Amino acid sequence: MRNPRGTPHLLRSVWPLIVIVLLQAFLAGISMDTLASVRAYVAGESLWSKGLTEAVYSLSLYSETGDEKYYRQYKSRIAVPVGDRMARQALEGSVPDLKAAFDGFLQGLNHPDDIPDLIWLFRNFSDVSYLAKAIASWRATDPLIDELVGLADAIHLEATKGPVTRERVDALRTQIYQLSERAAPLAIAFSRDMGDGARSIKRLLTIANLFTAALLISIGIWRTRNLLIQRRKFQSELETEKQRAQVTLASIGEAVISTDADGFVEYMNPTAERLVAKPISEGRGMRLSSLFRFVDQEDGRENETAIAQVLAGKASTGLHSLIREDSSSVPVSWIGTPLHIDAETTGAVLVLHDMTQEQKYISGLAFQASHDSLTGLANRHEFERRLDEALPQIGHRFESCALMFLDLDQFKVVNDTCGHAAGDQLLRQISGLLQKDLRPEDLLARLGGDEFAVLLQDCGTELASSTAERLRQTVEELNFVWNGRAFNLTVSVGVVCVAERDATREDTLRAADVACYMAKEKGRNRVQIHHPSDSELLQRLSEMTWVQRIHEALENNRFCLHAQKIAPLDEHNTDGLHFELLLRLQDEDGRLVAPGNFIPAAERYGLMTLIDRWVVRNAFAILASRIANPRSAPIDTCAINLSGATFGDQGFLEYVREQLRAYKISPAIICFEVTETSAIANLADATRFICALQKDGCRFSLDDFGSGMSSFAYLKHLPVDYLKIDGSFVKDMLVDPIDRAMVEMISHIGKVMGKRTIAEFVESEGILQALREIGVDYAQGYAVGKPKPFNSHSSLMRVRGATVRREVA
Known about the structure:
There is one protein chain. The protein is of the alpha/beta class. Helices cover 56% and strands 17% of the residues. The protein is built from 28 helices and 24 strands. The strands form four sheets. Strands 14, 15, 16, 17, 18, 19, 20, 21, 22, 23 and 24 form an eleven-stranded mixed beta sheet that branches. Strands 2-1-6-5-4-3 form a six-stranded antiparallel beta sheet. It has a five-stranded mixed beta sheet with strand order 8-9-7-12-13, sandwiched between helices. The protein is flat. It starts with 5 loop residues before the first helix and ends in a 20-residue tail after the last strand.
C-alpha cells in the first residue's frame, strides 16, 4: 500500500540538499548577472574611449579643413561620452533618475539589454573598491570633456566667421592633442580597474560555488549516514513493536481473534479463549462458525452474514449475542476488519468486547432516567411519556382517563425547621402511602420538590374524585415525627378527567396544574375538579397562556410604546411637551393588544418588574434620540407608569439610575406614575422609592386618585408632584353632580398641598370647559389627543388649551 506520509518524509530527508542546490543556483545566477554587468561596463568603456578618440580626431580635421562634415562627425562622436556622463550624474543624484540614466546610457551607444545591468551594478556596488576607483577615473574626465566641448564650440565659431590662419589652426590642434593626452590615462585606469574588479569577482564567485559544492557533498554523506542509522533503528524498533504487540494482545481486556482468508482461526489472545470457552490449542484451525455464532439480541435470529462480510473484504461492526458451543450466551460488541496484501484479502481480525457489565449499567441508567432517585417513583419525563401513550387510547382501550396534580401544603415548614434529611424522609413516607391507595395499573410520579402526579387509566369522574379525596385524607392523617417533633401536613389536589380523543398532553397538564393552583387559592387541603365550563378555571388558563406569551414578547421585543398628550388648561402655560407613555403588545400576527388583556396575568405571576424594566429602557432610548434631534419639539414631562410590584424590587431603583446615566437623560423630564391602590398597598416601599428618585430630580404622579377608600388619609404620606383624577369621576361630571363635586374637591386639595392636578378620560369640549372653570391644571383624553406610536420620529405637537379638539379616528 502507498504510504500517504511518504512525500513529507522524503522532503524532511532531502530538504538540506534542496536548500544547498537552490543556494548554488542563486549564486550562479548572481555571478552571471554580476559578470554580465561588469562586461557591459567594460564594453561601455570601450565605446566611451572610442567615441572620445574619434571626437578628438574629427575635431582636429575640422580645425584644419573647416569642413562641416568633420564637425558633424565630432558632434556624433562626442555624444557618446556626454551621454555616459549624463547617465552617471542621474544615478548619483539624491533621488536617482532611472529614466534619465537609461536615456544617457542609450545615447552612449550601450545595448538596451545591457542598460538595466549597468544601472543595477552602479546603484548597488558603486562604493565597492574596484568599481569605486573606476568611477572616480570616469568622473575625473568630466572637466576634460567640458574643455573639449568648449574648444569645439570656439573652433566652430571662428570657422563660421571666415578662414582661420595657419598659426591659429596649429594652436588649436595642439590644444586638442593635449586634451586627448590628458584623457587617455584616465580611460586606461577605468578599463584597468574594471578588469581587476571582474577578475576579483570571478575568483570570489568561483570560491563560493566550490564551497557550496563541497557543502552539498558533505551534507549528502551526512544524510546518507543518518538514513543508514535510521534504517537499523527502525528494524530494531519494529522487532520491539512486534514483541510488544504480542504481549499487549495477551494482556488486553478485549478478545482478539485472527483468521486466514477461509475463516480458519490462526490466533486468539487469552481474553478470546475465555470468551469462547476454548483454548487456542483446540481452537486453532477451526472455522469461526464452529467456534461460535452471532444471534440478534432483539429477534433471536442467527446472523450468518456478519463474518462472511468481513472475509469478503468489508469491515463490519455490530451488537449481538455470542452463542458458544455449550449454547451459553454472552452479549458482545464486535468489530471485524479484513487484512489486505496487494489489494487481496488474506484474512480478518475480530475484536470482541463482553457487554455483560455494560448492559447491567445501561439498565440501571434507564431506570434512573425514568425514575426519581429519592422515592423510586416515576419522574416527570416518564410520567409525560406514559401520558402520551395513554391519551391516544381514549375511545379505544378505555373511555376516559384522569390526571391528578398533588402539591403538599406545609412541606417547606418541615424542610426549614428540621432540614432536608427530614424532608426527604417525609417524601419517601408519603410516596409509600399514596402508592397503597392506588390501583396496580395506576401511575404515581414525583414531578419534583413536593409535587406529585397520578395517571388513572380507564377512570371516570366519580372514581377520580373519590380516589383524589382518599389520597387527600391519607396525607392529612399522616403524623410525621422527626427528632421528637410531630408535623401534620395537608395536600392540595387538582383533578382533570379526559374523555376527548384529540386531547393533547400540554392542555391536559395545564388544566391539572391550574386546578391544583385553584385548590391552593381556595384554602388548601382540598380537591379541585376541573370542568371545561368553569369560568374561574378558564380565566386562570388564559392567564397562564399569557405568561408564556409575555416572556416571548420580551425576548422578541414585541412590546411597543404609544404616547398620549397631556395638555395644560392654562392658555398662558409655556411648558414644553407633556405626555404619558402607554404600553401595547404586538401579537404573533402583528395586531396590537391592549394592556388590559395581559397586565392581570403579568401582575399575578410576577412579571411586571420585567415589563417595567423594558418600558424604562426603551422609553429612555427613544427620549435620548428625540433630544439629540434639533428638529424635535422640546419635552417638559414624560410620564411612565410603574406597577406596585416594582417598589419591592431592590434592584429597580439602581436600574433606573443606570439607565439615566447610560442615555444621558435629565431626571427632571421623567415623571413616574403610580396608582393609588398599589402605592397604598406598598406604602413603605413606595415612599422610599419616591423619595430616592425625587432627590435625583425625577417627579411622581399619583394615578387614579380618588378611587381608593382612604385617598386623602394617605396622600400626606406620599410626596408626589401630580394628582391624576380618576377618570370615572371625570367622564360623567357634566351629568353627575357628585362626580363634579369629587373633581372639584380633588382639585382644591391639590392646590392646598401644592400639587398639580391632571384629569383623565377627557372626552369632550364640554368637559374641557368645566375643568377650566374648576381650575384643574392639565387634561388628558381623546378630546386632547389619541395615543400615537412613540418613536424618535413621531409627531407630538403641543396643543394649547383654547385649541384642543377631539381627534377623529
